[in-house]
Known about the structure:
Blueprint (H helix, E strand, L loop, with lengths): L1 E7 L5 H14 E14 L3 H4 L6 H20 L4 E7 L1 H11 L4 E5 L5 H6 L2 H8 L3 E5 L13 H4 L3
Parallel strand pairs: 1-2, 1-4, 2-3, 4-5
InterPro entries: Rossmann-like_a/b/a_fold (IPR014729), UspA (IPR006016)
Protein name: Universal stress protein
Family: Belongs to the universal stress protein A family.
Amino acid sequence: MYRTIICAIGMGSRQTANRLLRRAASLVDEGGSIVVTHIIENIPHRHLTELPEVFETTAIVDAERKLAALCKELGIPARIEVRIGVAASALVTVAGEMSADLILLSSHVSDITDYVFSSIVEKVVRHAGCSVLIDRRPDHADKGAAPQAEDTAPL
């Protein structure tokens, strides 16, 4: 169905990450590719002097390690792309660079900040040059057996 899928995964729920990766694997064409993407939000420059210089590098390496382990555990071959930036614009940029034809991401329960600042999902949908699939199922609505502790733990 899709040749190149950007699968946007945060470092939140492992259950959500599993579900998104499995969905991406079911939608990718034979010979296609999945690019698992995680964006580490920008840190305001006024706070950079308070953080160790290796903070960004450590955060990138840690996210890459966790995402690679998850892909390996699920048996889903994927390229891992971790960047620092503003999540919505970085996802749209990665999709453009990779000539993606689908961005797959999960929504969350809206709160007041989404109405004031708009959500990442809304911004991606508005600016993406490709199709966007939004997984709206909250983790607690998954059917089947009760999730294991490692499924509900953060990545």
